[in-house]
Amino acid sequence: MSQTRIRVLVGKPGLDGHDRGAKVIARALRDAGMEVIYSGLHQTPEQIVEAAIQEDVDLIGLSIMSGAHLTIFPRVKELLKQQQAEDILLIGGGIIPEEDAESLIRDGYAEALFTPGTPTTEIVDWINDRMKLNRSKYF
Amino acid sequence: MTDSATWKEAYQKQKERQAHFVTVSGVPIDPLYTPENGAVNYETDLGHPGQYPYTRGVRTNMYRGRLWTMRQFAGFATAQESNERYKFLLNQGQTGLSVAFDMPTIMGYDSDHPRAFGEVGRVGVAIDSLQDMETLFQDIALDKVSTSMTINAPAAIMWAMYIVTADKQGVPSQQLTGTIQNDILKEYIAQKSWIFPPQPSMRLITDIFGFARDHVPKWNTVSISGYHIREAGSTALQELAFTLADGFAYVEAGIKAGLEVDDFAPRLSFFFNSHMDIFEEIAKYRAARRIWARRMKEKYGAKKEESLLLRFHTQTAGCSLTAPQPENNIVRTAYEALAAVLGGTQSLHTNSMDEVLALPTEKSVQIALRTQQILAYETGVANTIDPLAGSYFIEALTTQMEEGAEAYFQRVEELGGVLPAIEENFFQQEIADAAYRYQREIENKDRIIIGINDFINKEKLSIDLLKIDTEIERSQIKRVQRLRQTRDNLQVQATLDDLRTTASSTDNLMPKIIAAVSAYATEGEIITVLKEVFGEYRENAVF
Q1: DSSP A40
Q2: What's the CATH fold of domain A7-138?
Q3: By the 8 A CB rule, do B129 and B74 touch?
Q4: Which sequence spans correspond to the domains of chain A?
Q5: What is the secondary structure of B289-336 as a DSSP string?
Q6: pLDDT-derived band of residue B1, with 50, 70 and 90 as boundaries?
Q7: CA B272 → CA B16, B202, B282, B498, distances in Å?
Q8: β-strand A59-64 against A112-114: which pairing, if any?
Q9: Which terminal residue of chain B has fewer beta carbons within 10 Å of its beta carbon, N or C?
């Protein structure tokens, strides 16, 4: 496997099963040349973090439509910290009011949040830019 | 005399404003429809309203007799807060209730289960036990309202709680009217809120058919739902075909369980989406009625007229709404509502403008309800029945829909039926492909969505959103824990043991579930017992 390919885990935490967004994003990232792992539905934060570490991903994208974003993002971030895997970037999307999105980013629980209507190209570009930045830092 | 050749020649000399003209679902549309492509046989393809094959409507007088039921889906936080919202809606002239449950309730977890963490009361109301159901309908006379409950895997339990609540109000089950969604097939296909594997899930459904026949005869036992299939990204045709395929699967399951088709088919109802393409939607509803009537009569041998009638609820398309410029969603919803009414819906939910951002506020719900009232009382669309019949375009689209659906039924049959097709991810892959194609069209600007890829405003959000207090989770957890301490736990245990035994047999589960909820066994406890016997479903996800 090429070392330069960005590896992404698209995670679907919580109980809601609305996976249209997660699947469309997963496919768009794959079409953009990334390695994409889709967690499947109804995952706990623990399962997502474990999968992310096992799969050695660069980034986790969480899709949340159930309104549980204010508990799930901090929980995933905390678990990443506990596992000393904070280098894994955490982003997300879903039904997330702007005010909540701002506070999650401000408090460091997510790097970026994309709400419905965001072009997938914008997400691809954001990831590519960030990964370039990250890799130049470490390599 | 009209001359098609001359017209065509003249038309082709002129420029069109875009390369392709297609519906929301990507179906090519001709510049003009004429008697040549819109021909139907009135007697066999349309019929008068209330007459076979019911293309023009399931009732003789349709909205001339009674308007559609205006039914706004609502529920959030605790039973008490939802109860207040229901009373508000009834006071505003709403004519039926529609209960939204929170995710833990939908997935069969009590509010104090670790998996419920952060999700209690978020997207609907938390119902852990009969106690919560009693609160939810306090001071609402259950012999006066019809109630729709959007619940699937645990439908039997919520329905049992409703029946017992009504009984405590002194309303016998024979008088109850309403609907449980109870459509597990579309959960495997699209919405993904499943608990048990398909076989025992189908058994729960046929148990409900049998119990309703004997005890709750006016209840709609399944709301066979295309809504979620469409929201997951399907085309209009896929929504139509997959939903009806599910419907036929329930009919076959009922027959296989030993029921007479006419004993349960009259209580099957449908639930469709209404997306932005007005004519495509209208054609979908008309085709749905015709296909259902034909198959029920010809293939399943239904004799009762009610078994042939495809009655449906419609909800405007949540997936058509945009987060930017949310006020524009009022307009989108109004057009979608128009399509549903022109298509002859029996009831309608209009989305609120802010639902793409959060649960709706009281104000935005009121605007959504007013949208329906304006449609009903001011526009004149309800003055005559099926006003678009005979339109070359509408009839051509309706026929095309029917043919397309028949082709899908053929493919499903080749795969061995709906359950094997689910296992092979047939529906799931079709939907994922359609969703991705739609997204690409938007990103390539082949399809213009106002505020998303054109006519964009850069201003900040200008509306207030509903906030759910996080304190609700804590108080609901306390409530269910207190219940477990105060109820008769010996009796709870006895009813749960009884339920376990029956689950392993082929006897009807409903009486046992009713006994358990009456003893205040919680939803989670009942589900746990059933999981022990039935197991749990696991999906092999595709994207």
Answers
A1: -
A2: Rossmann fold (3.40.50)
A3: no
A4: 7-138
A5: HHHHHHHHHHTT---SGGGG---EEEEE-GGG--SSSTTHHHHHHHHH
A6: low
A7: 33, 21, 11, 38
A8: unpaired
A9: N
- Which chain A residues have any C-beta within 8 angstroms of a chain B C-beta? 14-20, 22-24, 26-28, 38, 40-42, 44, 66-68, 70-72, 75, 95, 97-99, 115-117, 119-121
Res A2: pLDDT: 45
Stretch B497-523: mean pLDDT, rounded? 98
Cα distances (Å, whole numbers) of residue A123 to A92, A103, A108, B128, B349: 10, 20, 19, 39, 33
Among the listed residues B209, B311, B197, B329, the one whose alpha carbon sits nearest the alpha carbon of residue B260: B209
| Interface probe with B: pick from A8, A19, A31, most Cβ of B within 10 Å | A19
Portion of chain B with pLDDT greater than 90, in percent: 87
Whether residue B267 contacts residue B220, with contact meaning beta carbons closer than 8 Å, is answered with yes
Residue in chain A closest to B77 (alpha carbons) equals A67
User: For residues A29 and A31, what is the distance between their CA atoms, to the nearest angstrom?
Assistant: 5
Is B253 touching A (CB cutoff 8 A)?
no
User: Average pLDDT for residues B236-253, to the nearest whole number?
Assistant: 98
In degrees and rounded to multiples of 5, residue B307 shows phi and psi of -70, -20
- B81-85, B178-182, B315-319: range with lowest mean pLDDT: B81-85
Domain assignment present for residue B368? The answer is: yes
Residue B176 CA, chain-centre distance (Å), reads 20
Residue B317, domain member (yes or no): yes
Question: What is the DSSP code (8-state) at residue B224?
Answer: E
Q: For the sheet containing B268-274, what is the strand order?
A: B69-70, B347-349, B312-316, B268-274, B222-225
Residue type, B372: Q
Residues B190-244 pLDDT 10s: 999 999 999 999 999 999 999 999 999 999 999 999 999 999 999 999 999 999 9
Q: Summarize pLDDT for B268-287 with one digit per residue, the tens.
A: 999 999 999 999 999 999 99
**pLDDT at residue B452 in the model:** 93
The DSSP element (H or E) to which B189 belongs, if any, is none
B151 in any annotated domain: yes
**Beta carbons of B442 and A119 less than 8 Å apart:** yes
Total tally of structural domains belonging to chain B? 1
CA distance B32 to A100: 49
Maximum Cα–Cα distance across chain A: 40
How high is the pLDDT of residue A137? 55
Q: What is the DSSP letter of B114?
A: G
Residues spanned by the domain of B258: 60-443
Q: What is the DSSP string of B85-101?
A: HHHHHHHTT--SEEEEB
DSSP code of residue B386: S
Using a 10 angstrom Cβ sphere, with 0-12 exposed, 13-18 middle and 19 or more buried, the burial of residue B131 is buried
How far apart, in whole angstroms, are the C-alpha atoms of residue B58 and residue B442?
Answer: 37
Q: Taking CA B440 as the corner, what is the angle to CA B434 and CA B446, rounded to the nearest 5 degrees?
A: 110
Of B397, B418, B475, nearest in space to B112 by CA: B475
Contact B539 A16 (CB under 8 A): no
Whole-number Å distance between alpha carbons of B535 and B530: 8
